[in-house]
Design goal:
heterodimer; A: 957 residues; six-stranded mixed beta sheet; five-stranded mixed beta sheet; B: globular
Chain lengths: 957, 242
């Protein structure tokens, strides 16, 4: 097995990390989804450490609040006892979970000073069951996932880890920089390992893989796979980002500055070799020899290094007591406390079991308790929501004035309910990208945004172009750019900052004090300086091959012209430029004299090559849609939400985005189904397509008749403020505009109602005005709660949940199984997109809550943006994966309730079964990383998926 | 001269290094209490002494202080840190003349706080050793806040009285080379020792192997009283400095 193959077998342990600019919620344990949820979590715990369930005291509080039903808990305890073959009464296990376990760790503290007699048999059992009696195994366990420089640090008190990690972060953050720095690293186009050699001024003739192989030989690494994983885990945020880049061929920065995981590992190993070169233990064989001689000392120092050695042992070490005595005292102290915990538990439980039997039972119950509690919480919610859903009065709206489709995002729930309360409106939910994945190039921007779930690669490019004069916009944009550049130049010049602070520093004070004390007024003032985008339309039609050729030629000639103008004083005619292009692309003879270095620059720096020519043509061929594509996307969308007849006069499709200030995680609050971007372009695209005459005619042939008077109006829901803004209303007639004003008024009232409802859950927010201020307050750590407290998904007709208060906790996807075909294609599409996004969002919140240090991003307070791709704490460190603690905790207590996604689907069981079978989400569904619940009204049964089968949990009357 | 030797004996840590460092009868907690008591005796004794002091005395105590800084960097026990800090600050006590008494009282009050934190650790974590008790600011913010106050005071950071009496001495005294060297060295010594403790126990990730315990109401009140005493002393310090 080559090194690359070994790397491939372990690399999925670290999750992808997407750049923070388009934050993608993801399951940090995605690489474990081929295992059952419980087993995956156990494996992840053994690798990453930390917690995978909440503490039992947390669940106990939920039990006391009535959120975990007693009967459900009892049933789950019985199931586990039966599955695991525990021969104890369930009441005994329940008493342990409720009375002993929540106090388990605290009990150890209480017992510290107790001098009770220890049962000898129990002590012997615990000793035999522990790792302490096999010191070599103990040593192996302690050094698992430790690099050699860390071992040296632990044994001899150095700080190589700090310097190695600092050097690595310094290099990779500069190499991977995406225009944050003003002093860019040179030679990045050579690739990461080549650039690194120049950075560190050494040469290595072969590739990164060979370097890794040689390094392993020098370090005498026995298990290459395990050691590769060890290095990946050291900075797994950075490793995840490099993994993501290297696997996305369209990622522009990767195309410009290629990097791979093996190169990253070569860099790590270069620094490791340099760090251990002059150390006592230069390789693992030397370490093993040393450990064989000083085993007690090595174990003690490793324990101390990992903060596993407690106070009295640390005191003894400081007093230079003999290590074997200190270790022996430490072991006996630990075993004594373990024994006291069991003895004390025996008293509390009034157990008739022998202490050794009890110890065994407690050990196994403690392994199971997290899952028992979690499942009981989920099951309690499932029972409660099933009752609510099946009892909703199923009454369809008769005369609908307007329909509104929102993203299925949990934050749409309250606003949808509020809209339906204000008048004759019908709302729908769909994945924010509306099933129409696009690569969108915004007006005045150069790069495309992929507006689709991260797993879908758009095949259609849409450009935004102005339809009215934009002189004022261009002038303001130009002025702002010039001002920024002047300020940046002044700031980065070595001399000017001294004068600049004195002369214009006060200008920044206006912003500083204004935003702090008068955020609303300051925002109003500053908004006057912002350029307002002119009215735009999208390029929806395909380009002809002549047009494609024209645009590629135009791009190339422009580049060649500017390079020649910059590099030479000579003027070149259009024919000469054309000759250069033909030479570069078609290897024609060069009819003009151009220095070789300019030709080289055009090839390497500006990529005017035959390959790029083909690439550009391919990209331009992706612009717009064919008529068939337009019809197919519209039809798919309408069928997906079940809106195929009785169209109202106004069909609004409302995307969403978030507004906040000074928030690197802002895109985490945007649309997850649009790759962490605002989903307005998708809604505008679909509405423009739906309003096209030839599309309506074509779709009519397929049985969907949309009346001419029906207009599709795109809108944007600002989730922070619950405001709704409509676009492209100029397609409405005067009469329609008047009617639509009433719709807008009603939606505005719904926004106010929604804000008032959300006030109750946001801290320090009493009025809806407070909510508005949060979106512009630069010190606000929670402009909104975002997707926190998300709990479930409901896919089914709106009438089943209409007017049901779900407190922004459910992803709501409209679905009518009667419209679906026998192969369940629509439901499969819902599983393949929205459900996957929902699962990623849900599990990201789950793990960021259960262990924010390992799976989350820690506190926002210490974050600094690095390389414009993410944040780290302080001045160097790992890229923070997951969510900041402020997004899931409130005043030290979890705000988010970590449960798996409770996935309610209202459809016959056979349909759901087919969709699961056909879906790419099948592995995580069957491995129970979500909790499927099927409401089959035809069969009058509700099913839950557990242990590989659908079981009936309720009969519908 | 003899009386200065006694003073050095009481405040400079000599009894510890000569007799107690390797003894088996007194533990570090008792040595901390004894050192504090000896410093109080030294304060009373110094009341009867003229302001002038022999340079030799300052130099010996300075050497002892440097050694104590080295020893303090090697320990993660609050008790040991406490008495090392007394020895580190002995040259100030001698050098600051009449202000040295107030400085030493401030030092003693700050160390009382540190002693109470050490007792809290001992009670709840089995020892006053903070080597494995990391990240307390996040998990037990109240303990973290009080410890931060005491360490900031010991690091000679305003507005606590230690720093104010220190500043008062710098502003109002005549300085020679010896005092420059002593003041600069020991200022940084105090500062880095206190910051080192902050880095190790206040900040960072909480140790998942530890069950963290919160202060009881009684403990909070006692620490609050210590803090009030420090604030009162700060007023005197401010008055003295201005």
């Amino acid at each position: 097995m080559s090194i690359i193959e070994k790397l491939n077998s372990v690399k999925d342990t670290v999750p992808h990390y997407w750049p923070i600019g388009s934050f993608i919620h993801h399951n940090p344990l995605k690489g474990f989804e081929d295992l059952h949820f419980k087993d995956g979590l156990a494996k992840a715990k053994s690798i990453f450490g930390g917690k995978v369930y909440m503490d039992s005291s947390y669940y106990m509080n939920l039990y006391k609040e009535g959120k975990i039903h007693d009967s459900v808990l009892e049933s789950n305890i019985k199931k586990v006892l039966s599955e695991k073959g525990f021969d104890i009464p369930w009441e005994f296990a329940k008493k342990f979970l409720m009375e002993v376990s929540p106090k388990w760790s605290g009990l150890r503290i209480q017992l510290l000073s107790k001098k009770e007699k220890i049962d000898n048999a129990l002590y012997a059992y615990l000793e035999n069951d522990s790792i302490y009696h096999d010191k070599q195994e103990w040593l192996d366990k302690l050094t698992r996932h430790m690099t050699l420089y860390e071992i040296n640090d632990a044994l001899f008190g150095g700080d190589d880890k700090e310097s190695v990690e600092k050097n690595i972060v310094e290099f990779i953050s500069r190499f991977l920089d995406e225009d944050q720095t003003t002093m860019r690293m040179p030679n990045r186009e050579l690739g990461m390992f080549e650039a690194f050699q120049l950075f560190e001024n050494f040469t290595y003739e072969r590739d990164a893989e060979s370097f890794v192989q040689e390094s392993f030989k020098k370090l005498h690494v026995k298990d290459a796979e395990a050691y590769l994983l060890t290095h990946l885990l050291k900075l797994h945020g950075w490793a995840g980002f490099i993994k993501y880049r290297s696997e996305d061929k369209d990622y522009i920065a990767q195309r410009q500055h290629p990097s791979t995981l093996i190169e990253y590992l070569a860099i790590r190993l270069y620094y490791e070799l340099r760090a251990v070169k002059n150390q006592k233990l230069r390789n693992f064989d030397l370490f093993q020899e040393y450990a064989n001689i000083h085993l007690d000392d090595v174990i003690l120092k490793l324990l101390a290094h990992k903060h596993m050695l407690f106070g009295p042992a640390l005191d003894a070490l400081e007093s230079n007591e003999e290590t074997s005595v200190v270790l022996s005292n430490h072991i006996s102290g630990e075993l004594n406390l373990d024994a006291l915990q069991i003895q004390h538990s025996s008293e509390v439980l009034q157990s008739a079991l022998s202490l050794t039997e009890l110890a065994e039972i407690i050990k196994r119950l403690r392994e199971e308790e997290g899952y028992i509690w979690l499942k009981s919480l989920e099951d309690s919610y499932i029972h409660s929501y099933v009752d609510k859903i099946i009892n909703v009065e199923n009454k369809a709206e008769e005369h609908v004035t307007a329909s509104a489709t929102f993203c299925l995002d949990v934050r749409s729930e309250v606003i949808r309910r509020s809209i339906e309360k204000t008048g004759p409106y019908q709302t729908y939910g769909a994945g924010g990208f509306l099933g129409i994945p696009i690569a969108f190039v915004e007006f005045d921007k150069a790069h495309e945004l992929f507006l689709s779930p991260a797993i879908v690669k758009p095949q259609n490019v849409v450009f935004e172009i102005p339809v009215e004069s934009h002189d004022e916009y261009s002038s303001k944009t130009g002025m702002n750019k010039t001002t920024k550049k002047v300020l940046s130049d002044l700031k980065n010049n070595p001399y000017t900052p001294y004068i600049m602070v004195e002369a214009i520093g006060w200008i920044f004070g206006i912003n500083l004090f204004g935003k702090t004390f008068l955020p609303q007024k300051t925002n109003k003032l500053l908004s006057k300086l912002k350029p307002y985008k002119p009215k735009t339309r999208y390029t929806l039609d395909k380009l002809s091959s002549n047009e494609i050729e024209f645009y590629v030629r135009k791009l190339h000639t422009k580049i060649i012209h500017s390079v020649l103008a910059y590099s030479s004083t000579q003027d070149y005619s259009d024919e000469e430029i054309e000759s250069v292009r033909n030479h570069l692309l078609f290897e024609n003879d060069l009819k003009v004299s151009i220095p070789d270095e300019i030709i080289e620059k055009l090839i390497t720096a500006h990529k005017i090559t035959p390959q790029d020519y083909e690439y550009q043509k391919k990209k331009l061929a992706m612009v717009g849609f064919t008529l068939e594509e337009k019809v197919a996307y519209l039809q798919k969308y309408l069928k997906m939400i079940g809106q195929v007849s009785d169209f109202p006069e106004f069909i609004t499709i409302i995307g969403h985005g978030s507004l906040s200030d000074n928030n690197p995680f802002e895109s985490a609050l945007d649309c997850g189904a649009c790759g962490g971007n605002v989903s307005l372009p998708n809604t505008r695209t679909l509405c423009m397509i739906a309003n096209t005459k030839d599309v309506r005619e074509k779709i009519k042939e397929q049985g969907i008749f949309i009346p001419e008077s029906t207009k599709f109006i795109p809108g944007l829901h600002i989730t922070t403020t619950d405001e709704i803004k409509f676009y492209d209303t100029d397609i409405l007639t005067e009469g329609q505009m008047q009617k639509f004003s009433k719709v807008k008024d009603d939606f505005n009232n719904a926004s106010i109602q929604s804000r008032l409802e959300r006030c109750k859950s946001l801290p320090y927010t009493n009025t809806h005005k407070d909510i508005m201020i949060k979106s512009m307050d630069w010190s606000e750590i929670r402009p909104e709660w975002g997707l926190a407290k998300n709990m479930g998904v409901f896919a089914g007709p709106r009438n089943s949940t209409k007017h049901l208060v779900l407190n922004n906790r459910f992803f709501m996807h409209s679905y009518d199984w009667k419209i679906d075909n026998d192969n369940a294609d629509i439901l499969t599409a819902i599983f393949n997109g929205p459900l996957i996004v929902g699962e990623w969002i849900n599990l990201e919140h789950y793990f960021s809550t259960v262990d924010n240090h390992i799976y989350g991003a820690g506190s926002k307070v210490y974050h600094n943006i690095v390389s414009k791709i993410g944040v780290f704490s302080g001045n160097y460190g790992d890229l923070k994966i997951g969510l900041p603690i402020q997004s899931v905790y409130l005043e030290g207590e979890p705000y988010h309730e970590p449960v798996r996604l409770l996935s309610f689907v209202e459809a016959p069981l056979e349909i759901v079964g087919k969709a699961v079978e056909n879906s790419i989400a099948k592995p995580f569904i069957l491995n129970e990383w979500i909790r499927p619940v099927i409401i089959d009204r035809e069969a009058k049964k509700v099913y839950s998926y557990e242990n590989g089968e659908f079981i009936v949990i309720k009969e519908i009357a | 001269m003899m009386i200065y030797v006694v003073l050095l004996f009481l405040a400079g840590g000599l009894p510890y290094y000569i007799l107690l460092e390797n003894n088996k009868y007194l533990n570090s907690k008792q040595i901390f209490l004894l050192s504090g008591f000896l410093l109080i005796c030294a304060i009373f004794l110094s009341l009867s002494l003229p302001d002038d002091h022999p340079d030799l005395l300052v130099m010996i105590s300075f050497a002892s202080a440097i050694f104590s800084i080295y020893k303090a960097t090697k320990t993660t026990s609050f008790y040991k840190l406490g008495y090392y800090l007394i020895f580190v600050n002995a040259p100030f006590f001698i050098l600051f003349q009449d202000r040295g008494i107030m400085y030493s009282i401030s030092l003693l009050v700050s160390l009382t706080g540190l002693y109470l934190i050490a007792k809290f650790y001992e009670k709840n974590y089995g020892s006053a050793n903070y080597g494995n008790i990391t990240g307390i600011t996040l998990v037990t913010p109240c303990v973290g806040t009080y410890l931060a106050f005491y360490l900031i005071a010991l690091a000679l950071y305003p507005p606590f009285p230690n720093s104010l009496f220190f500043l008062s001495y710098i502003f109002k005294s005549q300085h020679d080379l010896l005092s420059y060297v002593v003041v600069t060295t020991l200022f940084f010594g105090n500062f880095f020792l206190a910051m080192g403790v902050m880095k190790k126990t206040l900040f960072g990730r909480a140790n998942p192997n530890i069950h963290y315990v919160h202060m009881t109401t009684k403990e909070k009140i006692i620490h609050f009283i210590v803090l009030i005493v420090l604030i009162v002393l700060s007023f005197f310090g401010l008055k003295e400095t201005l």
